[in-house]
Amino acid sequence: MNPMDLPLNWRIVRFGEVATFTKKPKGLRYSEYDEVSFVRMNLIPIAKLYSKAFNLKSTDELSSGTYFEPGDILLAKITPSFENGKQCIIRELPTPFGIATTEVIPIREVEGVSDKIYLFYYLLVPDVRALLTGKMKGTTGRLRLGAEALADLETPLPPLAEQHRIVAKLEVLFTQLDAAVDNLKEAQAQLQRYRQSILKAAFEGELTKEWREADREVVQLRDIVNLRRETVQPDDGNKELNFVGLKYIDSGVSILKRWGDASEVKSAKARFYPNDVLYGRLNPHLDKAVIAEIEGICSTDILVFTANSKMIPRFLVYLLHSYPFRSHAMATASGITLPRTSWNALGEFTFTLPSLTEQEQIVSELERHLSVADQIEATLDAELKSAERLRQSILKHAFSGKLVPQDPNDEPVNVLLEKIQEEKGHQQPKRKKTTKIASPTKQLSLPFN
């Protein structure tokens, strides 16, 4: 948007002029309390306005943490939590204050000047977050947003009454939107259950019971599947080969649809060929199994399977997606940080193997049923993306003065700014600062222009 399109009664101010960053009061000693409300990063939801998630922790266990008070906005300041939109307001605590992870910034509105929920939603505007991301400092993967950079963020400020109207409108619209998104996600969950029910019916013989052959045998996976053990080194001259990492395989799909190139390869990788089945052995990716229609190399966290003459590859890939096999894979995964299963453990999976003719029929029935599910899933994905675009559009309209009408009877923003000046004068009598108010002719660079 053009900054000149902002309503006449709006101003651009620094975020630090309408918000304060909560700090531990001088003289406060945690030891005076038996326990405190403690919030780790995993308890901070993504873009959720209010949260009740906290743990009670003995003050004897506290070695560090960020002090906050009930009603503060807790904004994650470290990657990737910041990019993911982790922020919330914890309204009620059983203790007078809380201690959060050191990787958050606790934010409070300036009373009588700004609405904290207005500020909360402003921090969710995608372009605002992108601008703040560009101001983060640190090493790759551990970038942090400083309070100083946040304080300097240009923020559109309407009259306080209009802020309240914007918040009320946002809450109505987002309540409706969230309900629609919840319905779409529930439909996705039902679709996943449908997929599993079809797979269950297939491997229990229900899809082919009308003509099912008696020629079935109980086997272990290692009896009919081989593990391809061919590896490639980075300097083997295979830079033109396609590369597949776990990020290229979508959960629940059966055909490899995307890949990278060997320029990503920095260590030894497994070799695969057309009709090989690629299986992710790393939890939580144990539902990643696809047939490769290309030749290439893959991550060592992907096992390369080849089916022998008793099994067709398409039957194998559906078997790997079935609930019994996934349960076996999860039960045999070991490790603390990144649990993995192994070929030795997977090879012990026992199941009933139908004839090749029945395998073909089962695959045909599966693909007929699952193709319908794929179409529905594509529609649901499109609608979820559309809902997110609508959410972003609503936020953009809210902070450009186009979501609710202006009221000429609202107290002018200049009065709010004078309150800021007066408050600062009381707090810092020796440091005189003038609020920078953009003139109507000054070209401003709002982050969502």
Provide an overview of this structure.
The chain is elongated, with a radius of gyration of 29 Å. The model is unreliable at 429-445 (pLDDT under 50). The protein has helices spanning 15-18, 116-122, 126-133, 147-151, 160-203, 221-224, 313-321, 323-332, 343-346, 356-398, 413-427, and strands at 11-14, 19-21, 35-39, 55-58, 66-68, 73-76, 87-89, 98-100, 104-109, 154-157, 217-220, 225-227, 231-232, 242-244, 260-261, 269-272, 277-280, 289-291, 296-298, 302-307, 350-353. It has a five-stranded mixed β-sheet, with no helix packed on it. A four-stranded antiparallel β-sheet has the order 2-9-6-7. It has 449 residues and is of the alpha+beta class. It has eleven helices and 21 strands.
Fold topology:
Layout: E1 11-14, H1 15-18, E2 19-21, E3 35-39, E4 55-58, E5 66-68, E6 73-76, E7 87-89, E8 98-100, E9 104-109, H2 116-122, H3 126-133, H4 147-151, E10 154-157, H5 160-203, E11 217-220, H6 221-224, E12 225-227, E13 231-232, E14 242-244, E15 260-261, E16 269-272, E17 277-280, E18 289-291, E19 296-298, E20 302-307, H7 313-321, H8 323-332, H9 343-346, E21 350-353, H10 356-398, H11 413-427
